Amino acid sequence: GLLARACANAARAFSTATHAPKAWQGSPAALAQMKTQLPEPAVCELVKWVGDAMTKSQNPDHATVVPEELPNVTAYVKDIEQRLLIEGPGLALINPIPSLANDIQKMRFVTFALTSCLGEPLVQNSQGERSILVFDRDAGRKMVDGQRYHQSHEGGSLHTDNVNVPDTWEYMFLTCLQPAVRGGESIMVSAFDVLHHLERHHPETLPVLQADFMWELRGFDDRFYKAPVLFFNNRNEPCFRWLREYLESAHARSGMALTDDQQHALNVLTATTELPELQLHHAMSKGEIMFANDMQVFHGRTTFYDAEPAQPEYDFGSGVNRLLQRNWVATSTEKYRRSNQSRYEYWTPKAVATQ
């Protein structure tokens, strides 16, 4: 039956992966393997490119990146992809560049260049933005009220970013442009460790998580789509689509009540990602860049508090409140192509369709 197939999938995935580099089990020692430094030739290319690009626009999304004109940057980011994201822990932490780290605008362009040399920077909202600023816009509004995670100061809620659109993509870049006065520590959990825990302790949840749930196109559209929480890539490695608040909002708004089995599976998955022994905590420094395999690394943060009141627009003049930049990247990496594509289904409830 479905449970047997799900357990077999999990067993196959972990027959070779339990001790793989991606199963780091929250070990602080794993951080040393994740850290990487841009080589000086790549830094020189970036400094020149950023200077030229910023004479044309202050918005990195308007910049044109030709990877062939940044050969050292391209070679570096593709090496990191292969060595750390595909074969390694699934996560890289790029150390701050001393000559650029303290300049918020320059670092925004640096990350856009890195993502463009790796693949296609993706649009993240209905406004067409590809470089999203992550900061608290309204301290009184929460995700349960419809606020997107990147616009709040709330902590917890470990998640993947592959939740707003049906098509899967590979990588997320998160650049620390300004740390918070207090809190905002990054939390990372390996999808391999999560699945291993579920397979061992809660196998009854696997077929439920591999079945369809409702999801919102939050930030893009009022419609919904259906897709599972758990699926497997072309290497039979575990992949997750997960942000519980968004999933529950989709079910509530669509009128599709969660079943008892679904509630149980969601509770178990939430509890698993919150296990201290699986979590890796890291306080990002100004100018540090997180480069993560989004389908295989749950990420979140501790609640943070800023020096100044939250505002709808970031105050670059003072630049003291917590600020990160998020970029999503799709590549031609063959291990992810066509992962879980056939089961997608857009779904528009009558209440939304008639508005």
List keywords for this structure.
disordered N terminus; globular; four-stranded antiparallel β-sheet; alpha+beta; seven-stranded mixed β-sheet
Task: Describe this structure in a few short sentences.
The chain is of the alpha+beta class. The chain has helices at residues 2-17, 29-34, 40-54, 71-86, 104-118, 191-201, 206-209, 244-254, 260-273, 350-353; strands at residues 35-36, 91-94, 120-121, 132-134, 156-159, 171-178, 182-183, 186-190, 212-216, 224-228, 230-232, 238-240, 280-282, 289-293, 297-301, 304-305, 323-330, 345-347.
SSE succession? HHEHHEHEEEEEEHHEEEEHHEEEEEEH
Question: What percentage of the residues does DSSP assign to strands (E)?
Answer: 15-25%
Distance from N terminus to C terminus (CA atoms, Å) equals: 41 Å
User: Which structural class fits the helix and strand makeup?
Assistant: alpha+beta
**Quaternary organization:** single chain
Written account of the structure:
Helix content is 32%, strand content 20%. The chain has ten helices and 18 strands. It has helices at 2-17, 29-34, 40-54, 71-86, 104-118, 191-201, 206-209, 244-254, 260-273, 350-353, and strands at 35-36, 91-94, 120-121, 132-134, 156-159, 171-178, 182-183, 186-190, 212-216, 224-228, 230-232, 238-240, 280-282, 289-293, 297-301, 304-305, 323-330, 345-347. Helix 1 crosses helix 6 (191-201) and helix 4 crosses helix 5 (104-118).
